[in-house]
Amino acid sequence: MKNVCEYFRVLLLVFPLLAFLFASGNATETKTGTPAAKSPEATSEETPPQVKMGLEPKAVEILKAACDRLAAAKTMSFTAVVSYENPSLLGTPLVYATKSEVTLQRPDKLRVITPGDGPATEFYYDGKMMAAYAPAENLLAIAEAPPTIDAALKEAYDLAAIYYPFTDVIVTDPYTDIADGLILAFYIGQSNVIGGTTTDIVAYANDDVFVQIWIGTEDKLPRMLRAVYSNDPAGLRHQMELSEWQLDSVVPEKAFIPANTDTARPIDFVHPNAPFPPGTQHQKASDASQSQGKSK
């Protein structure tokens, strides 16, 4: 706090001095009517530096080491805090965040508990079935599932638009997903701030997204990622912080099965925007609502 006060005290002294000098300069220019001549260096247009696309070996080595560490883990748990920007009516973006507690056991078990922000959700996969549960509404959707985590994640997205930003962290071969279409990778440096440990900072990109990642120097675990998508004209930023890592710990089998299958209200495992089945009360109500909207 003392440093902050000193900083503002200096500003209070400097700003009047700058204002005086600026006013004096304007007055001199007004008197003479001839502004000072600019040097050739100042008038010449500066050529922006050329960015050379390529894969820096050190950056690739760090990415591969992190991916190998993740792929080798038999079990894994971590907490993911995802924040993303959305444009506001003022034009400047607002930030929203979600928190997910992730547990998996390769090759065929996954649990994702998301308490907020937004509606709380739970996802379970045990190699045979996958379940999506909404605790506040006590709604449970169950569907048959393929035999691997990778395939189950794709099936969940195709059937019900369920997607997790940390998917690249938990798939069987994380580096294959990163290397697909990779056009740029370079090493930035180290940080002692992110994740409470020393991290190596790497930037990488393909034609769709530019990512900056912080990876633990010693344990090779990702601590934070920031992404900007190339097709987003606003350049909104997406950030994911990963913490509370536990690898190869014992996870009970019941962790991947919802506990309230007997008391929850069953619903279909479908896309949230899917049309209601013909003849149902929801479908009739939807048709009536659309008819009223057209008649207005």
Automatic annotation (TrEMBL):
Biased composition (Polar residues): 280-296
Alphabetical UniProt keywords: Signal
Signal peptide region: 1-27
Pfam families: DUF2092 (PF09865)
Gene source species: Desulfopila aestuarii DSM 18488
Residue span of region Disordered: 29-50, 267-296
Keyword field contains Signal: yes
Presence of keyword Oxidoreductase: no
Classification via InterPro entries: DUF2092, LolA/LolB/LppX
Protein name: Outer membrane lipoprotein-sorting protein
